[in-house]
Fold this protein.
Amino acid sequence: MLSLNILMSLFYEAKFLIIGEGGAGKTSLAKKIADENYELQPDEESTEGIDVIQWHFTQPNGQDFRVNIWDFGGQEIYHQTHQFFLSKRSLYALVADTRKENTDFYWWLKVVELLSDKSPVLIIKNEKQDRDCQVNERQLRGEFDNLEKILATNLDTNRGLAEIKDAIQLYISRLDHVGTPLPKLWVRVRTALENDSRNYISFEEYCTLCRLNKLTDRKDMLRLSNYLHDLGVCLHFQDDSTLKHYVILKPEWGTTAVYKVLDNQTVKQNLGCFSKEDLKDVWKRSEYADMRDELLQLMMRFKLCYEIPGCSTTYIAPQLLSIEKTDYTWDDRNNLILRYTYTFMPKGILTRFIVETHPWIEQQKLVWKSGVVLNKDQTRAEIIENYDQREIKIRVAGNRKKELMAVITHELEKIHNSYERLQYQTLVPCNCETCKNLPTPYSYSLDKLNKRLSDHRYQIECENSYEMVDVRRLIDDVMFQAIKADGEFNPQVAQLQSELEQERNESLTHRLRDSAEEQKQIINSQSAMEFEKEIFISYAWGGESEQFVNQLDDTLQAKGIKIIRDKRDLGYKGLIKAFMERIGRGKCALA
């Protein structure tokens, strides 16, 4: 017999994401699905970022089904951030405005394929004024086996709306997770999260909430947060080294605030440059005013902006940089050259790369929307994206060419790995006598070169000169392997990689130091009464010690006694001095 706290009634909920170009009618569709009587507005405002709408329908078996509709802003500035929100366990609708005929069906379907693990997709043709639109269905189905149906509607008259809603109900009910039994404790935690008025909490606070609701296994906590992320209830980016420390309880709150910056006219006119003073104007509404530091941090964590080194209150959003290439000179003698070519190239690879490597941007000036020049230890690297050609080209000159190239390729590989099944080639230039003097030497696929080595074939023919070329030298001439077979950094690369990581983290820690005095004043202003029922606990993290403290934490908090734990409550604004002063004013400390 199953314990009552193990299983619950069957689970009927899913996420429905509406994507497409700006002005296609995504918002109108979302509102019509939720309310067929909604009257379209002639000047319907475009979605800023993401809107989330709940829609309930009753299944044939009598079960109530909850749909979390995510309406995505369609402007190009938003496309680069879709990677954070397109998820598995979801149904997608690609909306196309038949009057404009500007929808790149292949691009959108490929984005869904890469970011959602081939979730099912409906194409909705929004036939405004009953204008028909032809879609090459056979070609699209040949490429995308997750394309379920192509439907047409006139949202002004509701023509076709019933068929669309029927299709949504059908395909969303077929998602793998629908109708599965869930642990009863998960529902308790989920209800507690939805009733929490905060916009986001730390992961440790989430764990504490789980324990208060009797969910104590950390693996189960992670499974639940991943499940709720896919459902669109909250956001927990477990695969991101920094974002995994936060659970965003109100997804639309954070995303809308972030997009307000990217859509701001002043920021656009300044080509992506903005200051903290600018943010006071952008985030002047009361729901944002007290959270500006946290929201700015969220933008930085999402790789949407970076702080200019040496300018602690000035930031750059690289997707708003000038499209014009910056003027500079380049010595093209003895360069290391590497190219990446993509079968399909998602947007935002280079702008994310710029954020990751921004401490080394030469003079903090040689950067534009599709390119950047890095300068480190008398070594320069030029990285240029040609989106139309689906290519990124790298050339490096100077003293530490191989080391810098290895760091660059490592950073790009991290970005590549954030996509599902991204198809690309790394191309190594030929080093034969003929190709050495050519502006465009013949190139070899790095994967094929490595395969030849593994098959003990140590030479390969150049297609330009027909000379036989040494395979090992082709690889070794261009790059070190950043990661060795045992997963450790190559020692020749490790120091340089460590320096980059330390420097790009400095902007975050610098901001935290800047707010130290403010935090200290906040702590000092609290009355002594507040500390009378606080117990400070310091303990060895992990193992039996942590298990014991978890139990003690739950017991004392249930009695209204506040537990302050260094691991949890020092938090991301970890001001150690101020925290220690707070302990000094407390009534009890337990080791």
